[in-house]
Amino acid sequence: xxxxxxxxxxxxxxxxxxxxxxxxxxxxxxxxxxxxxxxxxxxxxxxxxxxxxxxxxxxxxxxxxxxxxxxxxxxxxxxxxxxxxxxxxxxxxxxxxxxxxxxxxxxxxxxxxxxxxxxxxxxxxxxxxxxxxxxxxxxxxxxxxxxxxxxxxxxxxxxxxxxxxxxxxxxxxxxxxxxxxxxxxxxxxxxxxxxxxxxxxxxxxxxxxxxxxxxxxxxxxxxxxxxxxxxxxxxxxxxxxxxxxxxxxxxxxxxxxxxxxxxxxxxxxxxxxxxxxxxxxxxxxxxxxxxxxxxxxxxxxxxxxxxxxxxxxxxxxxxxxxxxxxxxxxxxxxx
Length: 335
Prior knowledge:
Number of strands: 14
Mean pLDDT: 92
Order of helices and strands: EEEHEHEEEHEHEHEHHEEEHHHE
Distance between the termini: 42 Å
Oligomer: single chain
């Protein structure tokens, strides 16, 4: 298999969705499973867009884990970095949904948050050869909650520095995953020091930095090459190599918002692989790249399931042609 230019490290799991909208967990009679996990979602979305990606994570030696691996392999994702745990099960998350498509992560099927295989990713088993030939590393922050996986994330960041990979981190704050949520903020802020691009929601930006202005975040973290803030129906804002802008949300019929941010990340990285990081120095090109990412995210909300809903390049192209680019706003800003 060809070595992928993008490596995605973190959790892969099953999102178990309530079939009854606006219901409490104890009221749910039927759950429908959808494959997910933010880094895995990114790897799949990238592959569908035409950029080869590899996934690094840990699943249980069980049916749910094998089914996830088979799905990734069917899509063409490199799975050489997937580890298997002999006793810990593959994670399954209970997800409640509203009638408007919003979701809430409320718990786990099979135990508390610490018992699942993704908490046991081993640093010593990371595929060094893949790192040596890749260009980008994508990771989230959920694994920081667990000592073994936190060590693996830190090792991955060290390997990325050793082999000169560009690092994108998606904060993806989910308190239900953290046994001790109070320790999350300092851990995340420490890890951010090692990354090049930071993607976060406006709520996460307010929580971590007490601002929703990506230029101000870049000013506080001058090592960053880019900051991307998503705000759902409010669109997104960005700061990329001194160029700042705003992309209004695309008007779509929302079925499921799960995975939209992950598809946004995939769309952005796909553009970076296509055009190169230096393209971000051009304010018009930077705006076009974020607009493409926003379109990928928007299309993902129109169908159920984070991975199943991810669009093809043709779908993104057709979608973008139906919206005038003049609606976007771009300007130059130095931190």
